[in-house]
Amino acid sequence: MLLAFLGVLITSCSSELDQPELNNNFAGGTDFSKTDDMIFSLIGVYQSVTSRGWEQPLVVSTRGDDVNAAGDQQGLINQDRYVYDNSFFGSRTFWETYYGDIITAHTGMEQIERYQEFADEDGVALGNQYIAEMKVLRAVLLFHLSQVYGAVFIPTSSDLNEFANVTSVPTKDEVMQHISDQMDEALPFLPDMRPNERTDLPGGVTRYTALMIKAVANQELKNYQAVADAAGQIITSGKFSLFNDYYELFKTPGKLSDESLFEFQYSDFGQGEGDRVGHLYNPYGPNSWDPSIAGSGSGWGFFEPTIKFVEFMLDREENVRLETSVFFSQRGIDSLIASTPYTEATLPAFVSPTTRDGDTNTADVRSIFSSGKHYLPTNQLIPGRTGYGSNKHYIVFRYAETLLVYAEALLQGASQTAISADDAVNIVRSRAGQDPLSGVNLDQLVDEKYAELSMEWGKRFFDMVRLERYDELSFGGRTFTPDRTFVTYHQDQIDEFPILGDIVNN
């Protein structure tokens, strides 16, 4: 239903949505007395937040010992090696589009407030929910921006004039505290259900999305009791469970599962032609392959799991999660054999260029592996849709991460607010076919997050930075130092806001 709104309603009302954003006023002809139209403003914000350019998730994700930047995108390659290029187009569009969408969220909130002037009591309450949803969507973007850049601006309205004479830039800690506070403001107005339980907008934001964002923001602050409190509420709700099949979680069967706390939704609407809402997954795929469905498009080979990660998983006998996370090529397998103790005879049978769904990775340039979490089997494509990964959702937050950040908070000294750390970790391990642990320690927890969350939004990199485990990030010829934590602002942003240059220089 949400995707139907995106594909149909936005087309009909895009001029009304665009007018306030472009002109920073409400003189675009919108009749705010038509309070039933209030949902259009909300859908417009969902559309903006999910309409990510292909390079933007890579700017967030392509650092750490779980993933390499591959192919010919030198800006990504430099970033992966902690050599930051302030002329890289990806960092410019990441900054500009994320802030553009944050301003769109503020525009939407201001439009809702105008509708509320004409609404009855029920309409006002619904408007409060919509505003709360927009705060959560805005927080997702601001969270990623601050993870990448550290100190970033915090818009408080759609009025761009507030940035005309900025004299300071909030620090990362200030941004994360702001996000946490915003979630506290939003929580009382959000539906008390899983995202997939919503019937008005299936997959839309709920109170548990906000609690998850509050948890990870406080994790960045190392405020571990707040992490345990927020994540504990998700756990004790009893509403969430892990999807039974880790391999299919990241594919069509896993869309909007009971594990999902928030995902960017995309669809071909079950039709081989016509309207679609999609994301460009080509960067994650092999640049050549032999698909089981002839004519299915290949990828670009810009993003590959590392040999370090593959060896780590093999050493742990991680069959379920390794098969899911890595789409092997023969070139990658040969590289693995040449650089590790593993031989063709000792590798598990699933370490093969051909997946269980019959797609064969034939890449012999650019990447040695591809990301299995961003791979959609061609037998799951809608007939007539040939684009790599077409119809695939993009998971942002899921319950397995909730369990692991909760367990880490307890191991960092927080008081238990739900289950034990052992129980939280073992729920995740059980799905992966791993034996339960007793007396889990922080090292084991860190390894569990590596196995479970790699290739997902740079979570491994940000964990290693927060925990100051810098040696893990110095591998494969890279040398990480704490001053390499944040990506350099693009020169265009420095030119527009010279104060950003002062931060870089300091």
From TrEMBL:
Instruction: Provide the alphabetized UniProt keywords.
Output: Cell outer membrane, Membrane, Signal
* Cellular compartment(s): Cell outer membrane
Record flagged with keyword Membrane:
yes
Q: Can you say what this protein is called?
A: Starch-binding associating with outer membrane
Q: Domain named RagB/SusD: which ranges?
A: 259-471
Coarse class of the primary localization is: membrane
Give start and end of each SusD-like N-terminal domain: 44-193
Could you tell me which Pfam families the record lists for this protein? SusD-like_3, SusD_RagB
**Which protein family is it in?**
Belongs to the SusD family.
Q: Which organism is it from?
A: Flagellimonas flava
Recorded hits in Gene3D superfamilies, A to Z, give: 1.25.40.390
Entries under SUPFAM superfamilies matching the protein: TPR-like
One cellular component (GO) term of this entry: cell outer membrane
